[in-house]
Amino acid sequence: MGNPRLEEAILDYLKKHPTAKDDVEGIGRYWLGDRKVTDYKLLRLTLEDLVRKGKLRKQRRRDGKELYSSGEPK
Fold first, then answer.
1. φ and ψ at 15, to 5 degrees?
2. Helix 4-16 with 40-52: angle, nearest 10 deg
3. Residue range 9-22: average pLDDT?
4. Which of 21, 29, 34, 68 is the most exposed place for a label (fewest CB within 10 A)?
5. 30 CB neighbour count, 10 Å cutoff
6. What's the pLDDT at 74?
7. Burial letters for 52-72: b for 16+ Cβ neighbours within 10 Å, e otherwise?
8. What is the CA angle 3-55-4, rounded to 5?
């Protein structure tokens, strides 16, 4: 199970940047930079929870990197 505070921060970021798309490390570094994320396993669990809830989309690139973006219809 993910972290509700991280979940809220991710969704807040996407409200301000609706076209943002990044991988787990980029989200921790850039989207949540002020939170000083150190537990990337918890961040990944939180992102997966948001995907299951339909609030985020996950896209796997050909190189295997997983990118997360808004789950809102465009």
1. -65, -35
2. 70
3. 96
4. 34
5. 12
6. 52
7. eeebbeeeeeeeeeebbbbee
8. 15
